[in-house]
Amino acid sequence: MVREIVHDPMFLQRKSEDATQADLQTAQDLLDTLRANFDRCVGMAANMIGVAKRIIAINDNGKYLVMFNPEIISKFGEFETEEGCLSLDGERKTVRYKTIKVKYFNENFKQIKRSFSDFTAQIIQHEIDHCNGILI
């Protein structure tokens, strides 16, 4: 189900709770909402649809990926950039890393460790910030 985008910074600044298998419907709603906004959004966190759970969904070059309880375990290549957000107006400066390694659970709750680079890494970092209550 496509959900409305949350714009309330007080809600978005709350740290999200760990997700469980009971949150699979939230993940589906997150994917549906991301797909519905494909023309202006490449990633979303569950708090952006009003659910304070550690779930993110990204559009990785046309392939959608959902991560439960994502955690960056290593990072390399710091750089400064500007980013926008569907939940906020305008663009803001932030620091990101060119390459990251992420530990997360897939939709079957199998733990995955995977490296990401470039724009995909940037998207994931932005969405993990949302899970941590960090707004750019």
UniProtKB/TrEMBL annotation:
Molecular-function annotations in GO: peptide deformylase activity
Active site location: 127
Keywords in alphabetical order: Hydrolase, Iron, Metal-binding, Protein biosynthesis
Signal sequence coordinates: none
Catalytic reaction(s) noted: N-terminal N-formyl-L-methionyl-[peptide] + H2O = N-terminal L-methionyl-[peptide] + formate
InterPro entries with a match to the protein in the record: Peptide_deformylase (IPR023635), Peptide_deformylase_sf (IPR036821)
Entry-linked Pfam families: Pep_deformylase
Domain of life: Bacteria
Cofactor: Fe(2+)
Annotated family: Belongs to the polypeptide deformylase family.
Protein name: Peptide deformylase
Organism: Ruminococcoides intestinale
